[in-house]
Design a protein that fits this description.
Blueprint (H helix, E strand, L loop, with lengths): L8 H32 L3 H29 L3 E5 L9 E6 L5 H10 L6 E3 L1 E2 L8 H7 L4 E2 L4 H6 L6 H13 L5 E4 L8 H6 L13 H10 L3 E10 L7 H5 L5 E9 L12 H29 L5
Parallel strand pairs: 1-8, 2-6, 2-7, 3-6, 4-5
Antiparallel strand pairs: 7-8
Helix pairs in contact: 1-2, 1-4, 6-8, 8-10
Length: 303
Amino acid sequence: MTMLHFLPTPLVGVIASTLMLLNILLWVPVLLLVATVKLLLPFRRVRLAIDPLLLRIAEAWIAGNSGWMRLTQPLQWEVSGIRDLGPSQWYLVVCNHQSWVDILVLQHVLNRHIPLLKFFLKKQLIWVPIMGLAWWALEFPFMRRHSEAFLQKHPEERGKDAATTRAACEKYALVPTSVMNFVEGTRFSHVKQQRQQSPYRHLLKPKAGGISLALDAMGEKFGAVLDITIAYPNGAPNFWQFLQGRVPRVIVQARTLDVPRVAVSAGGDPSQALRELCQIWVNQLWTDKDALLDTLLAHKNNL
């Protein structure tokens, strides 16, 4: 139960939305002010001083979100696998994706356990009021994500996302960072699952392109891969359902894995070899994750 459990759920949603907005209005102006200094003084020494400060501001913002979530959400958290993590090394983070709520869950669970998560976002999201500026200030990479059909008609656009990813990761190499990748590329739904004929019961097909680009750009910087599985035993919620406190339970399981490495024979293409290795690796990862979700969700009616 929460302090507000006696209120109607729509009213709880309004209160949670208001607190979330106030938290945004508190921290985003501070974030933009500090980011403007870095923009006006684009020197390595300034970046090394400013980037950690931006991360601390973002962590305080996330802590504020955790505060209103504790006040308004009757959530039972079941979290494992994060005790031995640390904020002083680089992580490549992969996770299944079911709802926009996943982002708040990940930030709440991982805040100050690992460096700030940097998400790959669709280009259109830069126009989201206030938040687009915040994501820009934190140097989240904005991706166009064109379809193959579009790229065939506009071949000049091919490779631009790769360049964006590489440029972002090169910046991340200066300060410990967690590069976050939802490898399914979109939120899970049964319609999407059927459309792409996914071989998994609870997941869409994974795409290894983002992982291979991050590994190619940052090389040996990553100390580990953090594989996270999120399960909602009562069904994946939409954002409004979450704000109303209608999500009673969430399970988050994390495991730390070795970073995929690739050996390329003489005359081979390192990028191609890395992409092929990453696809094989993530396919196996998704097979294991699907089996884990079978186990986690099998108990939903027993509790």
